[in-house]
Design brief:
single chain; 313 residues; alpha/beta; L-2-Hydroxyisocaproate Dehydrogenase, Chain A, domain 2; six-stranded parallel beta sheet; three-stranded antiparallel beta sheet; 19% strand; binds adenosine-5-diphosphoribose
Amino acid sequence: MAKVSIVGAGHVGATCAYTLVKNDVADVVLVDIVDGLAKGKSLDMMQAGAIEGYDRNITGTADYAQIEGSDIAIVTAGLARQPGMSRSDLLCKNADILKVVLSNITLVAPEALIIIVTNPADAMTQLAHKATGHDSRRVLGMSGVLDSARYKFFISQALGAPMSSIEGMVIGAHGDTMLPVVSQTTVNGKPLAELLPQGKIDEIIHQTKFGGAEIVSYLKTGSAYYAPGAAAAKMAQAIINDTKEVLPCSVMARGEYGIEGLYVGLPVRLGRDGAEGTVEIPLSAAETEAMRDSVKGAKTLLAELPEFKSIVI
Ligand code: APR
């Protein structure tokens, strides 16, 4: 029986847990530092199972001992972005939280693959890789699945086309320099560039990049969680079910697009071993340039952490 632990039973963690049990992927352990929060949510979700028709076990706890034997540990613990707060504002506070969480995970569930959701995701995933000492295939970040979902949503809105008819990916850093790969985007097999004028495509790119900030501006006291929770669950599902699906995730680049040793969003085949191999999709000249900027942005942010201050930008 597959077991997924989620550290951080807040908005994203709980949504992820709910998606996993509804999709019958795994039993779930929710862990949170706030006493009773994970327990309360887990009971609520178990009771929903009688209506929704799932029988999965969901444990809520503040005790890491419960995560023993997990196949995957998903980390959503940390602060969510507030209005006016950039991803880099979050960096140091969430890094401190992550170090504590990761030391507990490696102690109790050393075999678990790790998926980092806490923002800024690429930097937090790089930190997780360093802190755990795990093989980089076993430490991934949630980024492109969410960004690509937003990209597809905005294309669907512009064309009145169902989201299922859209093939497209967002790669690069999980931030304002993310790269929706327009040159490889199709709707019902037709290139996006043949369906919309460049001005409208530029608007969609902008909407995608700032889709998270738009939601923060409406919610005021938190950030998005339905799509982020679903995105993390999708990654866990692909790993547990060994689907070999290619999804854009934050993974350690090993020469792809000339990037070496940096966690950044790339299309990656997900299976039981985690990130089982990347797929280098072709980029136009402008996209190659944008990817360079994105990598530079990711490195600049990472260098703000003492652990990576000597990184060459
Ligand atoms: N150990 C366990 N849980 C912790 C710890 C810790 N050391 N520190 C904080 N938490 C918990 C909080 O108690 C809270 O319940 O993490 C949870 C975070 O939940 P929310 O505040 O609801 O934030 P959420 O919207 O879920 O976002 C979490 O995901 O998408 C990212 O940017 C987002 O970094 C943020 C993270």
